[in-house]
Amino acid sequence: MDLQPIRILLVEDNPGDARLLQEYLADEGRFLFEICQVDRLCGALERLTREEYDVMLLDLTLPDSQGLDTVRTAHASAPGLPIVILTGLDDETQAIRAVQEGAQDYLVKGRVDGNLLGRSMRYAIERHRMMAELERARKLEHYVATHDMLTDLPNRQLFHDRLDEALALARRARSRVALLFLDLDRFKLTNDTLGHAAGDRLLQSVAERLAHCIRATDTAARLGGDEFTAILPGIQRSQDVARVANKILDALARPFVQDGIELYITTSIGISMFPSDGVDSETLLKNADIAMYRAKANGRNNFQFYTPAMNERALERMELEYSLRQAVDRDEFVLHYQPQVDVSTGRIIGMEALLRWKHPTLGMLMPSEFIPLAEETGLIVPIGEWVLRSACAQGRQWLDQGLPEVGIAVNFSARQFQRQSPVKMVTRVLADTGLPPELLELELTESAVMRDAEAASATLRQLKQLGIHLSLDDFGTGYSSLSHLKRFPLEKLKIDKLFVGSLTVDANDRAITSAIIAMARSLQLEPLAEGVETMAQLEALRNLGCDKMQGFLFSGAVTPAAAAKLLNRQDVARYAGLVAGAAFPTPRSVGTPIPLGARNGEVMPKLCVDVVSGNAAVAESLHGTHRLEPTFVPVPRNSASEPVATPLGIADSPTIP
Q1: Distance from C-alpha of 494 to C-alpha of 474, rounded to nearest angstrom
Q2: Phi and psi for 132 in degrees, rounded to 5?
Q3: Residue 607 above 70 pLDDT?
Q4: CB burial of residue 616 (10 Å; 0-12, 13-18, 19+)
Q5: DSSP state of 404
Q6: Which of these, 412, 549, 531, lies nearest to 468 by C-alpha position?
Q7: If we measure between CA atoms, which residue out of 396, 417, 416 comes closest to residue 408?
Q8: In the 8-state DSSP scheme, what is residue 590?
Q9: Which residues pair with 409 in a beta bridge?
Q10: Using one digit for the tens of pLDDT, what is the confidence trace for 304-348?
Q11: 569 neighbors 628 (Cβ within 8 angstroms)
Q12: Do 274 and 172 meet the contact criterion of CB atoms below 8 Å apart?
């Protein structure tokens, strides 16, 4: 049997004892031993710097070291090497203390033979190995308890320990500590569209770049999800913190490459300072969190230092969330409707339901002011069901009033699609409201269907079997896979207003829009452009082959009563001269006209004015009895300086664009 010899470092200054030990071990035939003998402790320590041994046999009476100091020195120099004491002193007390100092066994010369000596060394080696494994297990357990397993950064527990330690040192040194709170921007979109595996890899890359942006004395930690922190002790000036924050922003702005795909992610950073923004870790973390939300409100991808005024805004946000939770029960939501127009015929082909919140103290709130909060808190699920039910009920009411049949488009959030049972919910709402399924169109975002493409495809096909229509909203702003897209039972592709807005001034956006339209046609999908505000955009879209549009050029989102009057005079776009190409007349109404949606001094027709009013006297006085032409009216502005369309003759409420 091929056995590896046990390598022994024998530290013994008596040549006779050394020979006797070698003879003992030579008689022990079951194991092989390889002995290296030195007569001083210093020689043994020197050997250990360049050679490896399995065990040390150590005498306690050496020329350069005596007693327990010999054990301490040897163990401190080679903590990974098991030590067996072999001495002439038979002292039980010293034996116990030697073991306490790190020795594995204590043998007395003259009372050992080869068998005992060999067994003692083998047991010492095994005990030491087991103790080393136990120590590694303890360290691993501590590491797991204090580190994030995905990124290897300190976790929340260790972060708090490090922050408390940094604050204690800062108090003694009368220095400053900076705390940076980072939250990745729109990380959920990456998770939803590319999956959690890709999201995890992205988090690992972010952690690696973050760690390279700070000093060795600083601490980067992951609190959970897409939240990271950095503790910067020993700070002298705020400018130094700003430089670190900018360094992090620049580092994360570079693309992350995964499987040959470039991903882009940014972060919002909030900064609090000890002692000016808090003297304990809890307060500093809370204030850095508040500053981070301020950075997000300022457009993301920036950093903000905490100021006391931010606390007020944080309280306002808490109050808004509380009010939002009560809004459905208090019947504070309303729906307005924006027409979708086929400019080749001038006819309204659909009405998109757009949510508004009649807040009891803040007034009418637009979706951008509360939908992100609803998404974050999960309230979008009950709110979304209310929107669907209310829109379907309104569509049924219009049918009962004898108005023309048009589709009712309803936005369906990613969270609704993923967490509810969409098929059961839509089936129930259609049955309760009596709206024909063919008049309902669900608008889904790319993030809603791309998180789990296979499951989404199955759900979409079940929805399609109900007889409803499906469209993909805001196309071009997410991470759609065309291989998946072609398998979804979609009928319409909505081109995001981001591209439409600069269609006539940006060649790249024009090229992208042209490609989207061509792709939609090739997939037998109907393209519809959102956010059309100028005649130049309309003509450009028509030239690219897109005739279905919606936007302020045609109408803002109007109340149900105003929408009903639009449907009652379906050829409103033709009257406005958009289809026939009629020249726009000069304004004949009193006051300075403020055309809805005008850009760069361009005067646009305010559509639907006389048609919505139904006021024959007004129409006759402005245009004559038998001929209707477009006119302009002064458009007031609300308190938020947003244009408000006010059709003549409507007394119920102003429309909200």
Answers
A1: 6
A2: -65, -40
A3: no
A4: exposed
A5: P
A6: 412
A7: 396
A8: S
A9: 352, 441
A10: 999 988 877 777 777 888 899 889 889 999 999 999 999 998 899
A11: no
A12: no
Q: Rounded to an integer, what distance in angstroms lies between the CA atom of residue 646 and that of residue 562? A: 10
Question: For tokens 């049972």, what's the residue?
Answer: 421
Amino acid identity of 243? Answer: R
Question: Which one-letter amino acid corresponds to residue 356?
Answer: R
Domains along the chain? Answer: 6-145 (3.40.50.2300), 156-307 (3.30.70.270), 329-572 (3.20.20.450), 573-657 (no CATH)
Question: Maximum distance among all alpha carbons in the chain?
Answer: 133
Task: Answer yes or no: are the C-beta atoms of 400 and 360 closer than 8 Å.
Answer: no
Mean residue pLDDT of the chain comes to 83
Token pair of 340 as six digits: 């979708």
Residue 552: Cβ within 10 Å count: 23
Query: 583, 577 in Cβ contact below 8 A?
Result: yes
Region for residue 363 given its phi and psi (left: phi exceeds 0; alpha: psi -120 to 50; beta: otherwise): left
Is the distance from CB of 192 to CB of 414 less than 8 angstroms? yes
Enumerate the H helices of 473-580 as residue ranges. Answer: 482-485, 497-501, 507-522, 535-543, 560-568, 572-575
Cβ neighbour number for residue 655 with a 10 Å cutoff: 24
Strands 333-342 and 548-549: antiparallel
Do β-strands 347-359 and 407-412 pair in parallel, antiparallel, or remain unpaired? parallel
pTM of structure: 0.52
Mind giving me the DSSP string for 267-312? EEEEEEEETTT-SSHHHHHHHHHHHHHHHHHTTSS-EEE--THHHH
User: Burial code of 315-341, b = ≥16 C-beta within 10 A, e = fewer?
Assistant: eeeeebeebbeebeeeebbbbbbbbbb
Enumerate residues 6+ apart whose C-beta is below 8 A from 466.
423, 426, 427, 430, 437
Q: Tell me if 574 sits within 8 A of 346, measured CB to CB.
A: yes
d(CA 534, CA 339): 16
SS3 assignment for 312-363: HHHHHHHHHHHHHHHHCCCCCEEEEEEEEEECCCCEEEEEEEEEEEEECCCE
What tokens appear for 207 in the block? 């952690």
Q: Positive or negative, the Cα torsion across 23, 26, 28, 31?
A: positive
> Position of tokens 């729906």?
335
Q: What is the DSSP letter of 496?
A: P
| Amino acid at position 652, single letter | D
| C-alpha dist (Å) from residue 170 to 14, 113, 634 | 57, 61, 62
Q: How far is CA 325 from CA 163, 318, 356, 482, in A?
A: 35, 11, 15, 38
Q: Is the dihedral of CA 412, 415, 418, 420 positive or negative?
A: negative
- Which pLDDT tens digit goes with each residue over 56-112? 999 999 999 999 999 999 999 999 899 999 998 889 999 999 999 989 999 999 888
Q: How far apart are CA 325 and CA 379, in angstroms?
A: 7
pLDDT digits (tens, 9 = 90+) for 254-286: 999 988 888 999 999 999 999 999 999 999 999
The CA distance from 594 to 573, in Å, is 20
